[in-house]
Amino acid sequence: MLSKRTTLTVLCAAALVACDAADSVTGPTxxxxxxxxxxxxxxxxxxxxxxxxxxxxxxxxxSDDAGVIESARGGGHxxxxxxxxxxxxxAKNRADGTVQGQYQVNNRDVSGSxxxxxxxxxxxxxxxxWIGGVITHSSVPDRxxxxxxxxxxxxxxxxxxxxxxxxVLLVAATTAACHMRPYIPPNDLEGGNIQVRDGA
Length: 200
Fold this sequence. Notes:
globular
């Protein structure tokens, strides 16, 4: 669902994904407000993890569709119990057989972590997509190299359409686990947007 309201939500989600990367923000500054005090400025960190930029799936850099036959991209958030989970991803299958993409997730529960990965597999069926990848950066370093798979559903672009959906990330057996289209129940997004484009 893509409207001014949801576009703003996606941008906010991208900021939320990055909110824990406080060390990437240089020293705090303040500005005077109308009440005579000072307020901290709104800052969006440049890094999701050290050396890894925040992923904006709707940025122009991801708009190169030359040779793309299927694609999925998006970002958003929902709560798992009481913990906020934010994510962003982009994935493309090209006519030459190559796959391109990245994903990021920030899971804020007790055992949570931030992870960034490279997409290795995309399977599209109508408005649904399964994305597989490998963790390349994590706030829990021993997780790097683990394979992942998740499922998303694009439920429309209109303001009256139901919310798009995304699943949690599961550990995958292979880098091409998405081709098996595993059943991973998707959750309604509380905010965000998923776009799936089927080459058929």
